[in-house]
Write a structure and sequence with these properties.
This protein is α+β, with helices and mostly antiparallel strands. It has a single domain, classed as Gcn5-related N-acetyltransferase (GNAT) (Aminopeptidase, 3-Layer(aba) Sandwich). The chain has helices at 25-32, 47-58, 103-116, 133-141, 170-180, and strands spanning 8-12, 15-19, 65-70, 73-84, 89-96, 121-127, 145-156, 159-169. The protein has an eight-stranded mixed beta sheet, sandwiched between helices. The protein is globular, with a radius of gyration of 16 Å.
Length: 186
């Protein structure tokens, strides 16, 4: 992660993406503890271990850790990981203060990934619970399609839960945004 404030990766309509910096770590750790975000990823207990976890993640091929802002205020964070260099797929984890208002920031994240890497598909997965429903709606609002459900795939609080998988192909992203907001088309 960068030490100084990073320049914008993308900006649109008052939203801005930048590479995650050490100064963003308190926001990201607090964001992960809020609402459904705690169900999306488990960070290590200490801030130092969380920083080490994120730094290790960033060493993976084509991994980008980003923070989304609206009017200069952080509203979300996103990271890729588990990239398959053969199939050109990558896993995306995105957390937002308000997932219902994050379609454009999520579109900026996915556009940045498709623009900068030869990815064919970005996918997400999270527990299929009422609490995570806003994330399903968010991803669908950015063009992701539901690909299936993995039954009893994740343990939360000692209980097994189904996990939904949504994916977005490069070609579908371009078609989706060309019709909705051509500024986001590849």
């Amino acid at each position: 992660m960068t030490l100084a404030p990073a320049p914008s990766l993308l900006e649109l309509d008052g939203y801005r993406l930048h590479r995650m910096a050490n100064a963003d770590l308190p926001f990201v750790l607090e964001l992960q503890r809020k609402g459904a975000n705690r169900l999306l990823v488990d960070f290590p207990a200490s801030a130092e271990d969380s920083l080490a976890f994120l730094q290790g993640l960033e060493k993976q091929p084509w991994t980008v850790l980003m923070v989304a802002e609206a009017a200069g205020v952080p509203i979300g964070a996103a990271a890729t990981g588990l990239t398959n260099l053969v199939s050109l797929n990558t896993f995306l984890l995105a957390m937002f203060v308000d997932p219902g208002a994050a379609s454009i920031p999520l579109a900026l994240v996915t556009r940045h990934l498709f623009w900068n890497f030869p990815l064919e598909r970005i996918y997400v997965q999270f527990p299929l619970l009422e609490e995570t429903r806003p994330y399903g709606q968010l991803y669908e609002s950015a063009g992701f399609q539901r690909e299936g459900v993995m039954r009893k795939h994740q343990a939360i609080g000692g209980q097994r839960h189904d996990v939904v998988v949504l994916g977005l192909l490069r070609s579908d992203f371009d078609r989706w945004w060309a019709d909705r907001d051509p500024r986001l088309a590849l």
